[in-house]
Amino acid sequence: MGKLTARQRILELLDNDSFHEYDLFVEHGVHDFGMDKKVLYGDGVITGTGTIFGAPVCIYAQDFTVAGGSLGLMHARKITKIMDHALKMKMPIIGINDSGGARIQEGVASLAGYGEIFYRNTIASGIIPQLSVILGPCAGGAVYSPALTDFVFVVENISKMFITGPNVIKTVLGEDISMEDLGGAKVHAEITGNAHFYAQSEAECFEQIKKLISFIPWSNKQKAEKIEPKEPAFDKRIEDIIPSDAKEPYDVRDIIKSVVDDSDFFEIQELFAGNIVIGFGRMNGETVGFVANQPMVLAGVLDCDSSDKAARFIRFCDSFNIPIITFEDMPGYLPGVDQEHAGVIRHGAKVLYAYSEATVPKITVILRKAYGGGYIAMNSRHLGADFMFAWPSAEIAVMGPEGAANIIFRKEIMEAEDQNAMRQEKVKEYIEKFANPYVAASKGYIDSVIEPTETRTLLLHALEVSKNKEEIRPEKKHGLPPF
C-alpha cells in the first residue's frame, strides 16, 4: 500500500537505537467467535519509549497488519499504560493511529477501552504535550482521541478520519461520497481544522513532528529548551512590508520573519482559517508563540474558524509556559448572516477568554488597523497585555474612518454641494483626530508608539523583563470557556 509498517514508523521517528518496546507479549483474552484460536501479535499495537533529539518520549503505533489494528480491551490497556507512564514521568506522548476501529468480537469491552483512552487524554491535557499522527484509517469513536490531543498530523492519500464511513452515509442518506472527500488529509487540514499539520509523505510528516518537538517543552513544569540565538535572515526590510495605502494587503508572515531568530517561523494550521496566522518562532534563542491577523485573507478579520484556531493555540502556549506575541491588523469581526447564525458571538468570545485567562508574558504590536471589538480581542491592554506597542501606521478606533465619518458628519455631508469631496475631507479629519495610535497612547492604553525598525529590539526587551512574571488569579476549580 506504499505505507511504512508500525515498527518502521517508530524507528524512523525516534533517534537511532533509542526505542525500547514494552508489553510485546500481551495477548487478548477473548474466546468467542473463534478468537481463542487467533494469535494477535502484541494485540495490534506497539508501545514503548525512545528519544527525539536525545530527550525521552513515549510512543505507540497501531499495527494494521494485525487484525486491522482493531482496538480491543488489551490493545487499549497497552495504550493507556504508556499514557500513564508519560504523565507520571512528564514526557510527551505520540500516538500513531492506523486502525480499522473497535474490535467487533469484543463488543462493549472495546468501547470501554476507547473511553479509558479519552479519559487519559483529558487528564494529561495541559500537563504533557500530546501528538496524534493519522497514518491510516481512524474512524468512529477512535477519532475523539486525536481530537482531544494538542496537535494532529495528517498525510495526503494515507490519513482518513471520519465518524461515519461512506457506506453508512450511502445507506442512511443515499449520498455517494469517497473516503478521501469525506475525511481525507486535505479535508481536515483545510476545511474542518481537525488537523494542524499536513504532509505529502510519511517522511515529511516525521520531520514536522521533530521540528515541533524542538519548539515545545516536555511538560508544563518546564520551559522549551533554549538554543543559540541568531539574527533574522529575512531579505525584506521590515519598514517596507506594509503598503502606504491602508487598503492594500501584505503577508503578515513577513513581519514575523523579520523579527524571529534566523527568520525561522514554524506555522501551525497553515491551510485552515488563513485570516489568522499562528505558530512558533524563537527570540534570543527561546520559543515564542505568535498570533497575527493576516490581511491577505478576508482583510484579517476574525470569524468563527479563526477565533477557534487562535484561542486553542493561545491556551496551549499558556499551558506550556510559552510567551505570546500578537501582531494586530484587522478591521473587526466578519459581518454577515452566515457568521451570525454560525455563532460568531460564541466563537469570537473564545479569543477574549483565552487571552484574558493566559498568565504567560503577553505582548501586542498594532501594525495597522485595530477597530472596534477586534481591537479589544487581539490581546489589548484591557485583556491583560503586559506590553502594548503601536507603529505610527496604526489606526485605533471604534470603527473604520469611512463608516465613522458617514455617521458623525452625516449632516455636513448631506448638506454639501459636493458630497463625495466633503466625505473625503471628513474621513481625513476623522483619521487625524481619532484613527491614530496617539489618542490611545495619551490614555495609557499603548505603552509606546515605535518605529518598525525598533520592533525586534523592543520585543526582546519586553520578553527579557517579563521572564519572572507572576500573576495570581482567584482560586477556582476551573473557568467556563464559551465552548
Descriptive report:
The protein is an alpha/beta fold and 483 residues long. 37% of the residues lie in helices and 18% in strands. It has 18 helices and 17 strands. The chain has helices spanning 6-13, 73-89, 108-124, 144-148, 166-173, 179-183, 185-192, 202-215, 252-259, 304-319, 337-342, 344-357, 372-377, 401-408, 410-415, 419-433, 437-442, 455-465; strands at residues 20-22, 45-52, 55-62, 93-97, 130-134, 137-139, 151-155, 160-162, 197-199, 266-268, 276-283, 286-293, 324-330, 362-371, 387-390, 395-397, 448-449. The strands form three sheets. Strands 10, 11, 12, 13, 14, 15, 16 and 17 form an eight-stranded mixed β-sheet that branches. The chain has a seven-stranded mixed β-sheet with strand order 1-2-3-4-5-7-9, with helices on both faces. A two-stranded parallel sheet has the order 6-8. Helix 2 (73-89) runs parallel beside helix 3 and helix 14 (401-408) crosses helix 16. It is elongated, with a radius of gyration of 25 Å.
